[in-house]
Amino acid sequence: MKIFVSIKMVPDVSAPMQIKNDELIMDLDRAVLNAYDASAVEEALVLKEAHGGEVVVVSVGLAKAAETLRKALAMGADSAVLISTENVEATVGMDSSSFAKVLAAYFSKQSYDALFFGKQSQDTDAGLTGSMVAELLVIPYVSNAVGISREASGGFLVKRQGDSGQEMVAAGAGCLITCSNDMNEPRIPKLKGIMASKKKPLDVLSLSDLGVSEGDVAPKTRITAYRDIPARQAGQKFSEGAAEDAGWVAEILEKNDLLS
Amino acid sequence: MIFLHLLTVQNGGIKRSSLEVLSRGRELVDSICKSSGDSAELHAVVCSPEVAGWDAAKWSAEIGAYNVDKVWSATDEAFKEHNNQALLSAVQSAHTQATGDGTKHSVIAMASTEGVKDILGALSMRLGASVIADVSEFEISAENDGIQLNATRPVMASKAQTKVQATANHVMVSVRSGSYGIIDQAALGSDGDYDANTISHQHVSIEHTDSKLHTQIREIITAAADTIDLNEAEAIVAAGRGVKDETAKALIDELADLLNAGIGASRALTEAGVYDPSMQIGQTGKVVSPQLYIAVGISGAIQHVAGITNSKVIVAVNKDADAPIFEVADYGIVGDLYEVLPALIAEIKRRKG
Ligand SMILES: Cc1cc2nc3c(=O)[nH]c(=O)nc-3n(C[C@H](O)[C@H](O)[C@H](O)COP(=O)(O)OP(=O)(O)OC[C@H]3O[C@@H](n4cnc5c(N)ncnc54)[C@H](O)[C@@H]3O)c2cc1C
Ligand SMILES: Nc1ncnc2c1ncn2[C@@H]1O[C@H](COP(=O)(O)O)[C@@H](O)[C@H]1O
């Protein structure tokens, strides 16, 4: 069984940040493996441990995205592919559609049992790339997975979080699945894994290796400014004892017509 | 220009978040017609499994006030359950016909439900449209080279927001619940009394592509049937790690019952299996927009707060006076939930008589 997992390096949302002149200022060296992608890697590794096979992690980005690939290799992935955008002019503004085109160009030349994606990037919450790639490759897909098992047929049974309940969805081999972080707790690489990861293959490809031009990856959306979120004001705090505090708050809620 | 909205229907009714987007569509279409004299139309797509076919009276009652210029309805067994390929095909057919094979420019706007998130990216590729997901505000203007969409969307777990722009012949947007108000039916039409025959309607059929593309739902595991939909709830009581045992859960239930509130949970509790995963609120879970949100034993991590900032009034109960939840709460009670909740319940009961 061969599973490819698309993983992205994202800025750490818990790092301090500041907005000045419409721009976001933060320490971009504090980048991490997208949490949803870490869950996708974990799930692929669990399936590999149960059924045998191979897990390949793929990332499109600048040379430093190799760190993220190394982390996934240290978790246990077998090999990694970096599709470098290092010399691509549009690289800063690339959006989900740009990445989807690159990833689809790569996967169209591979054979696989499944493609795993994160359900969204934790910095932008876009949640678009997975189903875009499925559409470009003309393959079935299931999004927002909270559990995956392999079926005897070679297909996958996916537990997906829908609007009200969970759906058990069967998808044939060759499908694409986007993963929620509610699926599992990604393993923390151990020293042995970290040492081993250094010897694992990490191939670097360029866009032209895939026959993708700069025009193909031109973003379709453009961020024109960063802004502060209009902050909610911290309100009144009560700490006089349960009975008294409850009385105050209930009175306020009643006055605001919120007790009906 | 065509403004096309995919109606989100759940349990036979249209979801509030969907009507919010339709309301915004009406407003934008009217303002384009007025300001530029351009012709702009509001269209809706309805997908339903009802074999009985199109029920004009029902839909006129539901959306008549919005003066929808055209409704495209797809009726197919496939819509009994969520089915991404069937939905994609229905919207594509409606879009093709509404825009005259794409010659008219269009905006395709939908509510940010799980069902819509599932198809948004794929649909944008299929229609060759530019897409901006999960916005809290959006404007459109007709330009020579297409439609310009300007949107605002939260990023970095809602610690910042971006202004995003797309210009294309076809632009798509999904909208967070609670971003726009619902048009007052009575204020628009003649007391909600609409002529069922005037709603212009046409069937679209879906393409049953080769089975290779299809996924199949084997089973649906639903949360208790009588639970209130968190996206629609007017009041929510949400439990966090502080809610440790059955006693605390019973207090949450009692408070929610009193307020006719939906019950939500932080990730700490859905992960521990204490509450159903569909009850999770936040970045991974749901974005909610109730009038009243009561957070009990929730610390207020950014990923949780990301889902609740559209609430009108936030009340927090937490024993740690420094918990970050108090920075976003309108009213905070510092105290042990085992003491505060019984007092609050008693006090609310007394006032409600
Ligand atoms: C990518 C990503 C996505 C995430 N998505 C979500 C999401 O969608 N939703 C979500 O909720 N989290 C999400 N998280 C997790 C989030 O970061 C927090 O870990 C989580 O919200 C913590 O839940 P909590 O507040 O219940 O628990 P804690 O942080 O442990 O807080 C418990 C609180 O209860 C209080 N308490 C304890 N006992 C009592 C008592 N007796 N009376 C009163 N107060 C008491 C404590 O003072 C404390 O403040 C996400 C994280 C990541 C990385
Ligand atoms: N540059 C990239 N390289 C590899 N995978 C990506 C990249 N961008 C997005 N993805 C994948 O697509 C998912 C959704 O991304 P997004 O559309 O940005 O929310 C991520 O969780 C990744 O699995």
Please describe what this structure looks like:
The complex is a heterodimer of chains A (260) and B (353). Chain A has 260 residues and is of the alpha/beta class. Helices cover 27% and strands 31% of the residues of chain A. Chain A has one domain (2-217): Rossmann fold. Chain A has helices at residues 35-51, 66-75, 96-107, 129-137, 191-197, 242-255, and strands spanning 2-6, 9-11, 17-20, 23-26, 31-33, 54-61, 79-84, 114-118, 141-150, 156-161, 166-171, 175-179, 202-206, 222-228, 236-238. Chain A has a nine-stranded mixed β-sheet with strand order 11-10-9-12-8-1-6-7-13, with helices on both faces. Chain B is 29% helix and 28% strand. The radius of gyration of chain B is 22 Å and the shape is globular. The model of chain B has no long low-confidence stretch (mean pLDDT 91). Chains A and B meet through helix 3, helix 4, strand 9, strand 10 and strand 11 of A and helix 3, helix 4, strand 7, strand 9 and strand 10 of B. Strand 15 (236-238) of chain A pairs parallel with strand 18 (331-334) of chain B.
